[in-house]
Write a sequence for this structure.
């Protein structure tokens, strides 16, 4: 039998040994905790770095995508676009809508509400294309009391394509008159004289706006002039006619702006098919005007027949017609401005009659002429056909 002292001693020794084991276990436990904390810290750092790297990659890829999209939508000046894909139906419908809007204003004698509403409508079209066009007005009054018993207000509308250094560039002017002749016995709307021409110019403005970047690199810019007061109030004479064009030509002469005009292309009496319109090279075109006119002749001749509705009819003839027809070009022609006068010979049957309303128009004819004129001009700015 063991003595109680020996048992006590052994118990004490056992407790001491247990204490030693606890001392050994404590550092191990502490080390495990430190290791767990370090692992957690580095894991969090790794996740943060992975997130940042992923974000950078996403940003770089997104930037690359945006750049590629921008490049794909930017036309390179070394590869001129083609406008063969332009929809003929859309062209015809747009011109028809513009024509009907103006005709719905009624007669457009200077001083009448129809004349004012037509001005507002044309300015509205160019304002919708802002800031690509600069709109100006040339307003004045003339004492026409002896003719119609009142003063007459006139306003020419001038719209210039807002290209870089537009004021220094040579101008290709497209022009038409928007007023209608005064008749007391019937309502004269003048659909071909010259609402359809104005509608063509308004739609051409949209073409030029759409491809403005190609005109930027050209020495030319486009200017459109809508003349008021082309028609005589009573009988055509030097004094009773061309009110708007005479005033603007004089103004531009004083401002020394005429020498900067490359050519003025004047449209008049366009839109009827009775008879089918034929244009000619007039003597007053001069050398420069004739050159521009012949471009239209060549373009029509080089097109396949399927591109025109009236494929068998020739609109632009290369032959010269030795007659001077007085029109809004005269005040500019007399001051040395090159002219292209697009007026059909012979005049339409509806000329200065009550029947010159929308029913006299053939929108297929209008669209044919629009495409030939528009493509001739756009070709000068690098377009391919």
């Amino acid at each position: 039998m063991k003595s109680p002292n020996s048992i006590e001693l052994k118990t004490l020794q056992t407790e001491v040994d247990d204490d030693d084991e606890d001392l050994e276990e404590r550092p191990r436990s502490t080390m495990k905790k430190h290791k767990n904390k370090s692992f957690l810290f580095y894991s969090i750092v790794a996740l943060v770095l992975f997130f940042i790297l992923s974000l950078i990659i996403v940003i770089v890829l997104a930037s690359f995508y945006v750049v590629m999209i921008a490049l794909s939508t930017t036309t390179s000046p070394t590869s001129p676009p083609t406008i063969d894909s332009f929809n003929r139906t859309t062209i015809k419908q747009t011109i028809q809508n513009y024509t009907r809007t103006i005709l719905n204003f009624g007669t457009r004698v200077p001083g009448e509400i129809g004349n004012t509403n037509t001005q507002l409508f044309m300015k509205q079209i160019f304002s919708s294309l802002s800031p690509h066009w600069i709109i100006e007005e040339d307003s004045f009054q003339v004492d026409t009391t002896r003719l119609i018993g009142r003063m007459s207000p006139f306003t020419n509308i001038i719209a210039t394509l807002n290209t870089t250094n537009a004021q220094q560039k040579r101008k290709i002017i497209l022009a038409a008159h928007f007023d209608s002749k005064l008749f007391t016995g019937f309502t004269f709307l003048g659909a071909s004289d010259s609402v359809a021409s104005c509608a063509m110019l308004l739609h051409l403005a949209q073409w030029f706006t759409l491809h403005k970047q190609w005109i930027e690199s050209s020495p030319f810019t486009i200017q459109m002039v809508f003349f008021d007061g082309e028609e005589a109030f009573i009988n055509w004479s030097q004094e009773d006619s061309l009110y708007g064009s005479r005033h603007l030509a004089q103004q531009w002469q004083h401002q020394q702006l005429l020498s900067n005009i490359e050519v003025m292309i004047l449209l008049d009496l366009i839109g009827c098919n009775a008879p089918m319109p034929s244009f000619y090279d007039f003597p007053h075109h001069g050398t420069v005007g004739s050159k521009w006119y012949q471009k239209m002749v060549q373009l029509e001749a080089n097109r396949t027949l399927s591109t025109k509705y009236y494929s068998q009819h020739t609109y632009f003839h290369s032959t010269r017609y030795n007659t001077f027809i007085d029109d809004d070009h005269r005040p500019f022609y007399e001051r040395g401005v090159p002219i292209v006068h697009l007026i059909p010979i012979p005049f339409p049957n509806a000329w200065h009659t009550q029947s010159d309303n929308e029913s006299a128009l053939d929108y297929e004819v209008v669209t044919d002429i629009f495409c030939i004129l528009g493509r001739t001009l756009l070709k000068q700015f690098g377009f391919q056909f």
